[in-house]
Amino acid sequence: MFDFGSPISGEPVTMETPRATGPDAREILRRLWRGGWYIVLGGLGAVILAVAVLNLARPTYTANTQILVDPADLPVIANDLSNRQPQADSGVSIAESQARVIQSDNVLRRVVERLDLTRDEEFVLPPSTNPLVVRLKALLGMETPQGSRDPVNIALDTLRLKLGVRRAERTFVIDVYVQTWDPEKSARIANAIADAYFAEEAGARTEAARRASDALTGRLASLRQGVEEAERKVLQYREANKLVTTSGRLLSDQQLSDLNQQLVGANLRTSEAKARLDQARHMRTGEAGTALPEMLQSLEMQNLRQQYATLSRNTAELATRLGDRHPAMAEQYAQQRDLQRLIQREKERIIDTSQKDYDRAVASEAAVRRSLDRAKAETAGNDRANVGLRELERELESRRAVYEPFLRRSRETNEQERLNSSNVRVISSATPPRLRTWPPSPKVVLPVALLAGLGLGAGFALLRGSRRDRHHDRRPPPAPVKGARSFRAVDA
Q: N or C: lower Cβ tally within 10 Å for the chain?
């Protein structure tokens, strides 16, 4: 057995436990407490630095104007040259394109020239006259070429950097932002950009209408010459073939139509004259008191028949009173015979007149018929000539059908040069901003700077505490008592 009373010889044994890999919360708090001054100084320094930066930084102000770009133009005229009738999915593309137009050099150049930004030091810095600066720029290759020193181009580049154009999602409203050192200048430039955009849009439409009008006018000259040449050929052909027209119809056709109507009238007149002649011949054998047709009545016949009727009544009354053998009756009968001879003579005259009317109607009908035959023969000859005439007229109509729309369109484009049908307007004009855009407000900067300074101070305090603890751990342990067994634990 082992005797615990026997002496033990040899070196003392030292047992160590491994230290933890990282500090715990208590150690961190202890290090922060020891480095509290660093945290306070870091926060205070950051605040002082933020105040200095705020005082040294030059403030900038942003003005905003809003432009509504409706893809559908105003329906001023039906055949507008630049009329936009967008499809369902092309409106956004049109709005995006207009946003790029606002940023174009044509629009911004109008603003530079209108506001004279080439004289503004914010947009065009005057060249440095310091020889050292000039030599340093030349040495570093920062000297701009002579061709790039145009003040207008420099102002354009600077304005483009200070300009922001953005279109809100699913809208046709374009926001135009301008950021400068002066709030009134920012608002003035933003409104000038909107005005320049309107002027550029109107100018583009006018230029497009002018180009179209010039192109149409140049084409109209050749089209007009073709129409005039076709009309001249038609006229020469008509003169050569004696094809005279009145009211858009050939004279021969019109004469043929008129002669047909005259022939119909002549037939009617001949029939009427024949009927009168037949009735007049039938009344030749009639008695003096027989009623006559209305067409055979005349004033002379009416007077004679009226006298004959009166004389017949008187004769009948005398015969009743005096008797047929009375001498006075002989005179009455003699007067009746005289009136009968006069009535018969008038009948013969009417018959002769009716015969002459009939003969004249027949002759007239024959003359009309002969004229109609000649007109038919002439029309047949004209029909053969009309084949070539119709071909020339078709050529004339085809050229005229092309020329007239060109002429009408040319007049429309000339009028469109003075019309602006774009549906674009400013819905919010820029006003001088009340608050600056940069640097941020001290209400934001100072708390952030304080937190950042405190964080940096805390990090520095933790770093110093960690280094101090590592330095303490590297110290040699105290010498143990000789002959004694010692146990030293290194705890975390």
A: N
